[in-house]
Design a protein that fits this description.
mainly alpha; 0% strand; elongated
Length: 102
Amino acid sequence: MGEKTEKVEKLAGPLLNFVFTAIPIIINACQAVYKIYVRLPIEYVYLLIGAVMCFMGGFYPTVFAALQAAEHGGLATVRKALSALSEEIMVIVEANKKDDQV
């Protein structure tokens, strides 16, 4: 049992470090993209969405279905929840950084 625990610890440590490093970068990138999205005229947004769907190849129906499902399933609610989660994650990451300094 001890050998398995050591293997898990060796894997979990670097994995958690990667997660705590990557999450703030991903959140900041998503926030930057959202700021650009809000400023773009709707025609450009449609153009970008169409280009993404066009070049997704066989995934086109899946992407379209996912977008439609998100609209009908409460995209605004998901957006609010993801925003709240990203704020909480940033608080946790900052607290973890302060704790690591001690």
